[in-house]
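wait is this the right file?? whatever heres the structure
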């Protein structure tokens, strides 16, 4: 008879019918993701070093699976658990953490790293100020990559009897690819190619760091962040190449895994698989980090995909280039931009780095019209404007049309045009 935590790791490697790629199914860990490994490893290391003592409190800042993994370990080993999360985190995830008995602290999503209430800074502070508190720090904790060197790598090597030629994984903290990749490189005398799969705008592949739709993979850089170094858990020397994957391709691959292989997995699995299926090699292994159950209302939902513009539809006909201005633009300048653009409204977007274009739909703070500008108010509206996805039908879009005459269009999660109620109605006839 084994204890629950003995079941972490040892996940199966299955052959995919259509591509021959071998997929390591990390959602079969007891807590439902690859992060069970890092969570358990970090806690055991902290117990051993004395950083975490009986009756202590585990603290982490995370929007995802590490929190669940730690909450599971905390419940199984008798610790208190506090998790700091961005307030945009899916309610199902918050409820799952609470179900494990964890305490949840919410902080605004769009804060730069330097802000004291940023998830990571806040978690570190809670741990410091709580007697018996210990901050797991998955981005800087060596026990995170180490567990993959000790377990995930050897499991793949043994399951393929040393035949593995390529290993593909996404990079979040970097723990998975660094530890697994290092083991496979060493075991094969450098023969195994280690390939990172990365959301297209993530800075790991040279992207501008602007928002992307795939949770838990990639490196986002807040526009007001001055310096955002990559985590210590990511060892770049192990990785041969990092391939950029558009969100649309990740989501398509994620949905294909469910429909054509019977694997219900998350978005980052789609990112990794989109790369793995294109690799030519004798034995290609891809790591699928978690289950699609947490994303039924996102990547696996047709409605969500249409509204975010990851599927095309009737509104695709309205896509057009847009002129936008950063928040804080002087009103006279904004008025001139609106007039010379000939647009019905001027999107006001999050200020910061000017090299991000087109802006992410989530960075559109307001749609300023001529009358807003006449009264001298260029600024974020208290209620952000509703975007319409290019995948929506005209009838659905008219039903969801926000207050006012203009809405912005969203394609692949980014600003892709402006549409008036009148134009939609005309198009409908
Ligand atoms: C769903 C999912 N995909 C990918 C990753 C990235 O793994 P790593 O942090 O080991 O790089 C994570 C990590 O949290 C994850 O939860």
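ok assuming it is, sequence goes like this
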């Amino acid at each position: 008879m084994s204890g629950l935590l003995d079941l972490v790791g040892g996940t199966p490697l299955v052959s995919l019918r259509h591509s021959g790629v071998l997929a390591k199914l990390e959602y079969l860990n007891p807590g439902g993701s690859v992060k069970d490994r890092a969570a358990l490893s970090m806690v055991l290391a902290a117990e051993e070093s004395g950083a975490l003592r009986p009756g202590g409190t585990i603290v982490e800042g995370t929007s995802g699976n590490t929190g669940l993994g730690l909450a599971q370990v905390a419940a199984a080993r008798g610790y208190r658990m506090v998790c700091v999360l961005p307030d945009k985190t899916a309610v199902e995830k918050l409820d799952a953490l609470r179900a494990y008995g964890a305490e949840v602290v919410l902080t605004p999503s769009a804060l730069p790293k330097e802000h004291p209430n940023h998830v990571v800074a806040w978690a570190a502070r809670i741990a410091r100020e709580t007697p018996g508190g210990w901050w797991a720090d998955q981005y800087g904790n060596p026990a995170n990559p180490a567990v993959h060197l000790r377990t995930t790598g050897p499991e793949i090597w043994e399951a393929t009897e040393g035949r593995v030629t390529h290993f593909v994984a996404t990079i979040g903290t970097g723990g998975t690819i660094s530890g697994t990749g290092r083991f496979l490189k060493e075991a094969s005398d450098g023969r195994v190619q280690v390939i990172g799969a990365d959301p297209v705008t993530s800075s790991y592949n040279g992207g501008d760091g602007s928002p992307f739709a795939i949770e838990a993979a990639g490196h986002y850089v807040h526009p007001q962040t001055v310096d955002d170094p990559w985590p210590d858990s990511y060892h770049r020397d192990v990785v041969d190449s990092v391939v950029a994957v558009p969100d649309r391709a990740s989501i398509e691959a994620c949905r294909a895994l469910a429909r054509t292989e019977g694997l219900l997995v998350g978005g980052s699995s789609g990112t990794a698989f989109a790369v793995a299926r294109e690799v030519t090699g004798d034995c290609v292994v891809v790591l699928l980090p978690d289950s699609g159950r947490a994303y039924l209302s996102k990547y696996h939902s047709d409605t969500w995909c249409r509204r975010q513009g990851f599927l095309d539809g009737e509104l695709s006909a309205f896509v057009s280039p847009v002129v936008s201005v950063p928040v804080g633009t002087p009103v006279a300048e904004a008025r001139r931009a609106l007039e010379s653009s000939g647009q019905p409204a001027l999107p006001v977007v999050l200020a910061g780095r000017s090299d991000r274009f087109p802006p992410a739909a989530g960075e559109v703070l307001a749609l300023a019209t001529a009358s807003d500008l006449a009264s001298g108010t260029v600024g974020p509206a208290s209620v952000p404007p509703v975007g319409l996805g290019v995948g929506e039908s005209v009838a659905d879009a008219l039903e969801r049309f926000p207050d006012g005459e203009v809405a912005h269009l969203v394609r692949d999660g980014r600003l892709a045009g402006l549409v008036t109620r009148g134009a939609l109605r005309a198009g409908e006839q």
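The domain at 35-135 is CATH 3.40.50.1100 (Rossmann fold). so i think its the right one actually
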